[in-house]
Amino acid sequence: MKVRDGRLPGVKWIEPTAHRDQRGFFLESYSRDRYAAAGIAHTFIQDNHSLSVRVGVIRGLHYQLEPQAQTKLVRVTAGAVYDVVVDLRQGSPTFGQWEGFELSADNMRQLLVPRGFAHGFCTLVANTEVQYKVDALYSAAHDRGIAWNDPAIGIVWPACGREPILSDKDARHPVLARAQLNFVYEG
Fold first, then answer.
1. CA-closest candidate to residue 58, choices 124, 153, 103, 122
2. Among the options 62, 119, 142, 173, which is catalytic?
3. Helix (H) or strand (E) holding 104
4. Residue 49 among the catalytic residues
5. Which CATH fold topology does 43-178 show?
């Protein structure tokens, strides 16, 4: 397993070791001890799974406020996404900055999204399935989001164009300047 730091502090790009042969492949998608040895020692308590049937679906940018903030370990099991994180930690030298990663069933890479970051993705392939672990349960009272097209953030979404497919909820998220935040950068 290879673990690389993202450009934004706390974000990690993970490449599990896949054992391939004529039958296909085998990999450990998660091992508590192996991940802890690589500095990822979160206690994940829930797995989530989404299916997006069309290209150009954007899900996000989502986060939960403290004390129900979530760390996510994201992977794609069918298809491909352009996965984006945005730093929401007040006082962070990278506050409001974004970073994007391509996750796919083919590359088998994973993304660790720490607490204090908004997270979202755009589907690059039809019938894309995303699975992710979280270290806190969903809380409707703490659920928040940022507009996918906030010009102050300036995310470039490949394959999504100007008219992505959004849920009603995601279409109503405020821009970052109007979003409710309670994350503090701890250095």
1. 122
2. 62
3. strand 98-104
4. no
5. Jelly Rolls (2.60.120)
Domain edges within the chain: 43-178
* pLDDT mean by block of 10 residues, the chain; 187 residues: 96 96 94 95 97 97 98 98 98 98 98 98 97 98 98 91 91 98 94
User: Quick one: the chain helix, strand, coil %, rounded to 5?
Assistant: 5, 40, 50
For residue 30, indicate whether it is catalytic: no
How many CB atoms sit inside 10 A of residue 36's CB?
Answer: 12
Instruction: Pick the closest to residue 165 from 104, 106, 124, 118 (CA basis).
Output: 124
For the four alpha carbons of 17, 37, 62 and 97, in that order, the dihedral sign comes to negative
Q: Which of 35, 63, 82, 132 is catalytic?
A: 132
164: preceding bond cis by omega (within 30 degrees): no
